[in-house]
Amino acid sequence: MISAQKWQLLSFFETEPACLDPHTPWPYNEYLFKITQNGLELSCFISPAYKDVRIILSLQQNKILEFNIQGAKDVCWHNDDGQEKLEIITLDNDKLWFQLKPRLYIEQKISEKPGIESPL
Fold first, then answer.
1. Residues 68-106, buried b or exposed e (16+ Cβ, 10 A)?
2. Within 13 Å and on the Cβ side, how many CA atoms surround 64?
3. How far apart are CA 44 and CA 36, in angstroms?
4. Strands 31-37 and 18-19
5. Domain ranges across the chain
6. Which of 111, 109, 77, 73 is nearest to 89 (CA)?
7. Is the pLDDT of residue 113 over 70?
8. CA pair distance 21, 36, nearest whole angstrom
9. What angle do CA 100, 112, 67 make, to 5 degrees?
């Protein structure tokens, strides 16, 4: 189960999600949060119990970014002085941070893996 609770996701996205099955309770359902901001559309699918996350960022219906992870280590909600962020932690402890206010911002942090040399 992810650390982020339903009320925290509702606060972060400021919208009611669509759910896969209205008869299946939190956390065993899959939720779709969808927002539009400055012409960008963000779709975020979250399956809390299975820790699956899919984020699609589109501009004028053209997909420009897609992030998929099945079985993430965790999804955490942070509120630092009123600035909300979601942190998605992969099994390798890499992190994807994103925020929606005051503007949409996505940042990925990849830790260096020992024994792997960069091709650059």
1. ebeebbebbbeeeeeebbbbbbbeeeebbebbbeeeeee
2. 10
3. 12
4. antiparallel
5. 6-109
6. 73
7. no
8. 24
9. 35
Structure tokens at 50: 């299975």
- Name the band, by pLDDT with cuts 50, 70 and 90, for residue 115: low
Residue-wise pLDDT tens digits, 73-112 = 999 999 998 899 999 998 888 999 999 988 888 998 887 6
Q: Which amino acid is at 63?
A: K
Q: State the residue for tokens 């982020």.
A: 4
pTM: 0.86
| Of residues 45, 47, 63, the one with CA closest to residue 55 | 45
Question: What's the token pair of residue 111?
Answer: 């830790």
Q: Where are the alpha helices (DSSP H) in the chain?
A: 6-13
